[in-house]
Amino acid sequence: MVDKPLDILNKSLNSPVIVRIRGGREFRGILLGYDTHMNLVLDETEELNDDATVKRKLGTVILRGDNVVYISP
Amino acid sequence: MVDKPLDILNKSLNSPVIVRIRGGREFRGILLGYDTHMNLVLDETEELNDDATVKRKLGTVILRGDNVVYISP
Amino acid sequence: MVDKPLDILNKSLNSPVIVRIRGGREFRGILLGYDTHMNLVLDETEELNDDATVKRKLGTVILRGDNVVYISP
Amino acid sequence: MVDKPLDILNKSLNSPVIVRIRGGREFRGILLGYDTHMNLVLDETEELNDDATVKRKLGTVILRGDNVVYISP
Amino acid sequence: MVDKPLDILNKSLNSPVIVRIRGGREFRGILLGYDTHMNLVLDETEELNDDATVKRKLGTVILRGDNVVYISP
Amino acid sequence: MVDKPLDILNKSLNSPVIVRIRGGREFRGILLGYDTHMNLVLDETEELNDDATVKRKLGTVILRGDNVVYISP
Amino acid sequence: MVDKPLDILNKSLNSPVIVRIRGGREFRGILLGYDTHMNLVLDETEELNDDATVKRKLGTVILRGDNVVYISP
């Protein structure tokens, strides 16, 4: 059985994910939604430092899929 | 229930949002409109410094979605 | 009521706008036209220095939408 | 009346234009043709130095629209 | 006989692959899925150092195809 | 009469062209073919130094249109 | 007669090719397949140093067309 990328996103709804974007920045939040461009809606979002400590709390954010390197459920 | 990214934008109309664009610059303004490319119309827009103080008042701006990293309602 | 980005451009026709492009350069001119890619036609265009003084007068220019960061009417 | 970007290009056929591309380089030539991607055909093309003096004569060139920042008729 | 890129991905399902992304970073994992944009689902993913030692264990990740340089089954 | 960019390419078939790509590198070769993306087939291709001397002989190459800045017949 | 870029790729199947990607890296391998995006399948792939010596043996790789600068059969 094949797991399509969007299937994995679907299974991850309402669960925490880590998202790395171009330039190396990372965000952690609860995945509330997504679309076919991999634009993401995260809740309780935290921007992380390199050592995975919290740099900034951002609440709800819409992250553009264009900048995503990977999403880790 | 899933929150699509554009649904969240729709719910944020006429409310303040923070927008971070590529390169790290941030803008704060009232979301007046958007389209499916995530081009945004902001009113009472302020460009912010890294410490979230106001760098420049810009009034109404049309921000191109291509440059958006995230939108935080 | 929602203001679509292209509606705002339409309302700004024949009025002065400021356009910032990637890399930080800014232009000021009278908006004569645009298309759905946000390619713009400006008249009496001036390229601006960081302190908003005029660096160079360019007359009529066609600015490619791809490079636009924001347009401020 | 609105001047669409491609209308302005059309009016500029067989006339001199200045084209700035990403990275800041500028070209001056006679506009012989274009297409909807803003790919341009220039004749008697000269690459310019920052002070607008001629750096190199290039004759006919096809300039890809992707790299264009602005075209000034 | 020709091996289309997506055929090779299909044959590599449930097998280990190495993925290099723009900027030179490399990941190693079990290929669980992919789509036509070369978005990939990897399991037991490890981010690698330049000397191919493990830098970080990431578990399941969705890697955006946009950033992929090559995939080596 | 308007010369579309692809018309000029068509007229240049089997003739020498110079191609500059992003980053400033230049190639000289005989244009054997092209497609609508401006992907090019060059024969007897030479990569050039800044002073237009030959840096390397490459024979036949397929150059991706995405990287092309200009083509000079 | 015109040689379309994809025709040349087709003629090069099962033959060695050199592929340069953005950033200057080069790969040498046997072309096993390709698609219309110029995604390539190479076998017996070697990553090359600037002096064309072998830096690393990679076996089979799928190279994304987006990063290709040129392919030399």
In short:
By secondary structure, the first copy, chain A, is mainly β. Chain A has 1 helix and 5 strands, in the order αβββββ.
Structure explained in plain terms:
Seven copies of one chain form a homoheptamer. Chain A has a single domain, classed as SH3 type barrels. The first copy, chain A, starts with a helix and ends with a strand. By secondary structure, chain A is mostly beta strands. Helices cover 10% and strands 53% of the residues of chain A. The longest helix of chain A is centred in the first third of the chain and has 7 residues, at 5-11. Chain A is globular and about 35 Å long. In chain A, strands 4-3-2-1-5 form a five-stranded antiparallel beta sheet, with no helix packed on it. Chain A has one helix at residues 5-11, and strands at residues 16-21, 26-34, 40-48, 54-63, 68-72. Chains in contact: A-B, A-E, B-C, C-D, D-F, E-G, F-G. At the F-G interface, strand 2, strand 3 and strand 4 of F face helix 1 and strand 5 of G. Strand 4 (54-63) of chain F pairs antiparallel with strand 5 (68-72) of chain G, so a sheet runs across the interface.
